[in-house]
């Protein structure tokens, strides 16, 4: 038997969340069984645990969109017993039992081999947020956006993805401009490598279809009017990546920046990205992630602390990233 956070739907439709002892025979189908060392508690996990948003689409459910651990049973030759792996996305915590459990069973195609230079704990300190940021950075580079081309903007810079994006871009030599709604955090963003910090209010209202050119590239974590304005301000031939919707799903833009300035808008999918791209991103993170920064921004919880922490997370009472130690 192993411990897991189990989410069940009550008769009134509310979500019941608690620690349960689970039989390994009840694990969902998959070629690989993993002894989970660490997981994370993300905002999305908080929504699932509290039931504040309809994240869960199959009941009962084990939440947790990330995990790092060791393969203990496998019918796939690519991941024999003893393999150190990372899993994130692929509907974990929504349609398939996730990482907030001491054991997980998943399809082999979902696995990424954990780089030797990256500990399981640090991998979860990075988690989906850092992985998504790296996918965005790699997308800018594939579009040939270079540090010499000019400043690169990161919107939603105080969020998980945004903070990692600022740090990763700065480490690669880009002049990073960070947009945030929390100007009180400007010094923190500068400590991560931001050259300048701007108030999100400058971008969050509906603007003109074509505006003064500022950015050689941008990583947008916000969507809606912000993304439209970022596109309208991107320099000729520049690239904008879209990886979030903090302001909204809508995108009220025109074709003007695309047909008059030749900019590119690249979507970033962290959930179903192909294995080769996942491996590239995690290998880059293993080399470039600042372990001192990870220690400064992460807090470690036990599984028993997660339900209470989920409520605090949604209330904005917790800063930084939450790592869950499944051995604690």
Structure notes:
The chain has 328 residues and is of the alpha/beta class. The protein folds into two domains: 2-118 and 291-325, Alpha-Beta Complex (Quinone Oxidoreductase, Chain A, domain 1), CATH 3.90.180; 128-267, 3-Layer(aba) Sandwich (Rossmann fold). 29% of the residues lie in helices and 27% in strands. It has nine helices and 15 strands. The protein has helices spanning 43-50, 120-142, 160-171, 186-192, 224-233, 256-260, 275-288, 291-297, 306-314; strands at 2-9, 15-22, 32-41, 66-74, 84-88, 103-106, 112-113, 152-154, 176-180, 194-199, 215-220, 234-242, 264-267, 298-302, 321-325. The longest helix has 23 residues, at 120-142. It is globular, with a radius of gyration of 20 Å. The two termini are 16 Å apart.
SSE order and pairing:
Elements: E1 2-9, E2 15-22, E3 32-41, H1 43-50, E4 66-74, E5 84-88, E6 103-106, E7 112-113, H2 120-142, E8 152-154, H3 160-171, E9 176-180, H4 186-192, E10 194-199, E11 215-220, H5 224-233, E12 234-242, H6 256-260, E13 264-267, H7 275-288, H8 291-297, E14 298-302, H9 306-314, E15 321-325
Parallel strand pairs: 8-9, 8-11, 9-10, 11-12, 12-13, 14-15
Antiparallel strand pairs: 1-2, 3-4, 3-6, 3-15, 4-5, 5-7
Q: Which sequence of SSEs, written as H and E, runs from N to C?
A: EEEHEEEEHEHEHEEHEHEHHEHE
Q: Low-confidence parts, pLDDT < 50 over ≥5 residues?
A: none
What is the terminal-to-terminal distance?
Answer: 16 Å
Query: Helix tally?
Result: 9
Classify the helix fraction into a percent range: 25-40%
The CATH homologous superfamily of the largest domain:
Medium-chain alcohol dehydrogenases, catalytic domain
How does the helix and strand content classify structurally?
A: alpha/beta
**Major pleated sheet:** 7 strands, mixed
CATH class assignment of the largest domain: Alpha Beta
As for the CATH topology of the largest domain, it is: Quinone Oxidoreductase, Chain A, domain 1
| Count of domains | 2
Classify the beta-strand content into a percent band.
Answer: 25-35%
CATH architecture of the largest domain: Alpha-Beta Complex
């Amino acid at each position: 038997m192993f411990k897991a956070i189990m989410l069940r739907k009550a008769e009134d439709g509310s979500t019941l969340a608690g620690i349960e002892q689970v039989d390994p025979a009840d694990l969902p189908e998959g070629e690989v069984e993993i002894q989970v060392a660490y997981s994370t508690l993300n905002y999305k996990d908080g929504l699932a645990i509290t039931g504040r948003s309809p994240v869960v689409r199959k009941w009962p459910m084990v939440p947790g969109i990330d995990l790092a651990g060791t393969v203990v049973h496998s019918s796939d030759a690519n991941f024999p017993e003893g393999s150190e792996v990372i899993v994130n996305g692929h509907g974990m915590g929504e349609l398939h039992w996730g990482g907030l459990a001491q054991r997980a069973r998943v399809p082999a195609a979902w696995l990424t081999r954990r780089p030797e230079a990256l500990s399981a704990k640090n991998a979860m300190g990075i988690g989906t947020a850092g992985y998504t940021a790296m996918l965005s950075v790699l997308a800018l580079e594939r579009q040939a956006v270079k540090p010499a081309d000019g400043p690169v903007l990161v919107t939603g810079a105080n969020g998980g993805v945004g903070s990692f994006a600022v740090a990763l871009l700065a480490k690669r030599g880009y002049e990073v401009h960070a947009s945030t709604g929390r100007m009180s955090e400007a010094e923190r963003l500068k400590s991560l490598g931001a050259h300048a910090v701007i108030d999100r209010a400058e971008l969050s209202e509906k603007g003109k279809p074509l505006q003064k050119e500022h950015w050689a590239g941008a990583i947008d974590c916000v969507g809606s009017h912000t993304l439209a304005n970022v596109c309208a301000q991107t320099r000729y031939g520049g690239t904008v990546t879209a990886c979030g919707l903090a302001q909204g799903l809508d995108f009220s833009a025109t074709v003007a920046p695309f047909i008059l300035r030749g900019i590119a808008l690249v979507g970033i999918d962290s959930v179903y990205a192909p294995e080769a791209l996942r491996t590239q991103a995690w290998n880059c993170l293993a080399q470039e992630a600042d372990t001192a920064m990870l220690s400064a921004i992460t807090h470690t919880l036990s599984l028993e602390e997660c339900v209470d922490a989920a409520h605090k997370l949604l209330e904005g009472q917790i800063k930084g990233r939450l790592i869950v130690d499944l051995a604690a």
